[in-house]
Amino acid sequence: MKLKKTTALMGTALLMVALTACGANNNKTAAENEKPSNTATTETNDATNEAANSTENTPAAAEPVTLTVLNEGAVGIGVGLVDDLLVTKEKELKDGGTDIAYTPGSQFEGAAFGLYYQKFISTKLKEKNISVKTEDWGWGEPLIQKETAGFLAKNIPDIIVGETQMPGFAQQGLLEAFPDDMAAEIREKLAPAAWKPMEIDGKIYGLASQPGVSSLFWNKKLVKEAGLDPEKAITTWAELVDNAKKVTDAGKGKFYGGGVYGAPNFGGYLRYGALVAINGGTFADANGLPTFNSDANVEVIELLRALNANHPAGLMLNNNEGTYFDAWNKGQLAYLIDGPWRAQECKNVGLECGMAPIPLSPNGKPGNVTIGAAFHSVPVDAKNKEAAFDYIRAMYSTEVQQLIADSNTRSPILKEIAETDDYKTKHPEMYLHYQAMVGNVQGLPTFAKDNSKAWQIFGDAAVKSLMTDGDIKAIMDDAQKRAELVTK
Question: Is Signal a UniProt keyword of this protein (predicted)?
C-alpha cells in the first residue's frame, strides 16, 4: 500500500503589468504607435519568467503537525509535548547533579539517554514543522488491551509501539505498510532484527531502533569453581547440559548450573524461543497454526528438562521472572541465555561474565528471536501518516544510532556504524550481539485464532513436560490436538 502524501499548498499571486506604447509621441506613425517596444516586451517576459521560476523553486511552507506517539519506556521522557518535556528533563538531570554532556563517539551512560534520543528526533522533525506529543499506554497486556480498543474505536495514536502483539496487528490489516522506498532503504542499511519480524508478505510494518536478541552468558567464578575453563565458550547443547550439571554438583545447594528462564509466559518463550529457532523448530506455521509436537520442538523441551534439573526447585518455571534474574545477580546461577543488557548488568552487580553465541544443537544452525524489541508502527487509521514515517526515519538516523552505540547496552541497527573496526574495538560485547542481529532472526508468532489460549496450551504442556517424567512427545501431541481446535 503506497503512502498518500499530503502537502500544504500556499496560494501565490503574480502581479502582471502590461506595458503598452504611449500614444503621446506625435512623431511616430499610427502603426508604430500601435507596435509595442521590443525592449519592453523582453524585459516584461524576463521579469515574468523570473518571478514564476522563483515561485516554482520556493518550497511551500508545511503546515504545523502535532504527531501523537506512544511512549516507549526505554527512551521515554514523560507524557506531553516533547519540546516542553526536554526542557523539564534537562533541568531535572542538571539539578540532580547528572553530567549530561555528550560527544558522539564517546562512551555515554544511561541517565540522559532518553533526553538525547528524543532531542535528536525532535530536531529532525522540526525541519518539517512537526512536533511530537507522547502518550503512555503502559506495556505488556495492558498496552495490548488499550491498542485493541483503540483500533476498534478508530481512535489510535499516529505511532503505536509494542513487542509480541505487533506482527498480529499487521496480519489483521491494522497497520500501514512502510512506503516502498523507505522499506528498500531499511533492508539495505539496517540489521534484520530491526525489521524482519515485522515483514509480512514482502511488506514491512514496523521498526525497532534498538532490538535485542539473546546470547549465552556465564558466571566465570562459578564455572571456575566447578573445575571448568572460565574463558572457554561452550558451543553445543551437550556441553551446556554437561557443564550445568558439573556446576550444580560443585555448588552443593549453594549455586547451580542454570541455563535459561523457562516459565510459561512471554519472558520464557522469548528466551528459549531462540533454542527453537536454532533447532529448526517453530511455534506456529506461516498460517498461524500450531506446530507444537514437531520433532525439533520436542528436542528443545528435552533440553529444557535437563536444564531444569540444574536449578533450585521451581525457579526455572517461576512466573515472576524478576525472581529468576535476582538469583543470577546474586551469583546463584552459572549459565544464562538472555538479551544484550545482561553484559552491562553483570558489571553493575559486580559479576565477571563471559558472553558468546548461544550453543547449537547437533543439527542446528545459528538463529534467534528478538527480545526487548519495541517495534514502532503506523496504524491505518493514523491521522498523520507521512509525519509518522518521518519519525520512524529519524529513529534510524546516524545521530540516534550513534547514541545507541555509545550507550553500550544495545547495539545499533545501522550497518554503517555497527560494521566498523572502531565499533568492534570499543564495544566487543555489543559487536557480538550485533552479529547475532544480522543472522536468522525471527519474532514470536501470532496464532490464527485465540492467540492467548494457544500460548496457554503450549505453556501448560511445556511445564508438564519439565515437571514430570512423562513422555514429552505424547504430552506435546496432546497439546497439538487441543491447540488445533482453538486456532482453526
Answer: yes
pTM score, two decimals? 0.84
The grid cell for 73 is 519506556
Which amino acid is it at 54?
A: S
331 domain-assigned: yes
- Domain hosting residue 348, numbered range: 215-369+447-487
In the predicted structure, residue 135 carries a pLDDT above the cut 90: yes
Q: Half-sphere exposure (CA, 13 Å, Cβ side) for 291? A: 18
Instruction: Looking at the structure, tell me whether residues 456 and 469 fall in a common domain.
Output: yes
Q: Collect all residues with Cβ–Cβ distance below 8 Å to 288 and sequence separation of at least 6.
A: 171, 445, 446, 447, 448, 449, 487
* Phi, psi for residue 161 in degrees, rounded to 5: -140, 150
118 and 158 in a single domain? The answer is yes
d(CA 447, CA 168): 8
Per-residue burial over 303-321, b if 16 or more Cβ lie within 10 Å, else e, is: bbbbbbbbbbeebbbbeee
List, as own/partner pairs, every contact residues 106-109 make where C-beta atoms lie below 8 angstroms and the sequence separation is at least 24, other chains included: 106/406, 107/406, 107/408, 107/426, 108/403, 108/406, 108/407, 108/408, 109/407, 109/408
pLDDT, position 72: 87
Q: How confident is the model at residue 61 (pLDDT cuts 50, 70, 90)?
A: low
Do 409 and 344 share a domain, yes or no? no
Residues 6+ apart with CB under 8 A from 208: 193, 194, 195, 370, 373, 374, 375, 376, 413
Percent of the chain with pLDDT over 90: 82
Q: Is the pLDDT of residue 194 over 60?
A: yes
Set of cell numbers at residue 294: 514437531
Q: Report yes or no on 315 lying in a domain.
A: yes
- Predicted confidence band of residue 123 (pLDDT cuts 50, 70, 90): very high
Q: Please report which confidence band the pLDDT of residue 234 belongs to, taking 50, 70 and 90 as the band edges.
A: very high
Higher pLDDT, 31 or 123: 123
* Claim to verify: residue 348 and residue 381 sit in the same structural domain: no
Same domain, 97 and 207: yes
- Kindly tell me if the per-residue pLDDT of 341 is higher than 80: yes
Number of domains, the chain: 2
With 0-12 / 13-18 / 19 or more C-beta atoms within 10 angstroms meaning exposed / middle / buried, residue 382 is: buried
